[in-house]
Design a protein that fits this description.
Layout lengths: L3 H16 L3 H7 L4 E10 L5 E12 L5 E8 L4 H18 L5 E7 L7 H15 L8 E5 L5 H15 L22 H16 L8 E5 L3 H12 L3 E7 L2 E4 L6 H11 L9 E3 L11 E4 L18 E3 L11 H6 L3 E3 L1 H4 L2 H15 L5 H26 L3 H19 L4
Parallel strand pairs: 3-4, 3-5, 6-7, 6-10, 10-11, 11-12
Antiparallel strand pairs: 1-2, 2-4, 7-8, 8-9
Helix pairs in contact: 1-3, 1-13, 3-13, 4-5, 6-7, 6-11, 6-12, 11-12, 12-13
Length: about 400
Amino acid sequence: MSSAFEAVQSYYERAAERLNLELSLREALATPTREVRVQVRVPMDGGGFKVFRGYRVQYNNARGPYKGGLRFHPNVSLDEIRCFAALMTWKTALMNIPFGGGKGGVQVEPKLLSEAELERLSRAFMRSIADVIGQNVDVPAPDVNTNPQIMGWMADEYARRYGPHPAVITGKPVSVGGSLGRESATGRGALICLDQVAKSRGWKRQDTTLAIEGYGNAGSWLAVLAYEMGYRIVAVSDSKGAIHNPDGMHPEKVLAHKQETGSVIDYAAATTIEGADIFGVDCRVFVPAALDMSVNEDTAPRIKAQVILEEANYPVTVEAEPGLAERGVTVVPDILASGGGVAVSYLEWVQDLQREAWPEERVNKRLGEIMEAATAQVLARAESEGVTLREAAYLIGVERVAEAEIARGYR
């Protein structure tokens, strides 16, 4: 199986070839600008300290400051971070917001840390990368296993060294410069994208069923908002299993059950099934909203959906995609479908630079404009050039970054 970075680079190379980019520019866009590896020392509650590996990859800043999340996970590696930094570069360009792409993380199992140890880890990591970030240089954000509280600790740690710069990091608590609407942004953006795809196919919302793999923040918000618009949620899963009801479920009640019990399984108004069985659920739209590479050569043949909406980063592997295409399954790519999070991160950054706080309605309205424009452009490019939605999205993103590089004098 291709590594995540190899997969993303293959998408980029195809776009660069189709755009007929000059070889020197093509090479420049194929490699990160900077890769930072750091040692993160964390004093432990029981005495002594542990050392963790941390990374920050700054891929390209031709269109603006590097932008991308920070994740805490045992599987964090340089290859993974490099992959998602590249993805962010093409995603921000596709969203047409003035950012480049970056990503970072620490190789750690945060569930094994106390809250005090987690805070010390967050602050130590920020100290280790503070010299290479800044509100006009590189703007981190939350990602897997990080949240507004962790961003708040990091923003405070940065302020201790450089003074208050709220725009240096996004996804913060609202009380310290975070934006209203940020929590729901990825799910709301994915829904806006899905709604346009459904309209382009003439689908009625009440006849469009969704199965969502991963019921964390992004997946649950998509379910809640989609249900409010009339879509039917027939299956959801988390790390402990899945639940299924072909007649549909009330996603807020499922979420309340998960918050009470720790999992979606054993929800009374649905049948509990094995987690892997969600791939075979009969639905129109399958939404991978968990970790990367979940739709692979083993799971893809089981999918019965007509559309896969990639709410997670790189959930459909390169090896799985040709088989899906042969069966007529349309993949809505991650750099489009999951763009809502970075779009509202951009709006938070703007508010912090201007020292303003916008009403949630204004944030959601602007998010809608950004997502609708990006989705319409991808659908139109795919139709006009006879390519897949992923190929169209990469053509737009790579083309915009290349244009910025040329405008800056690199050709």
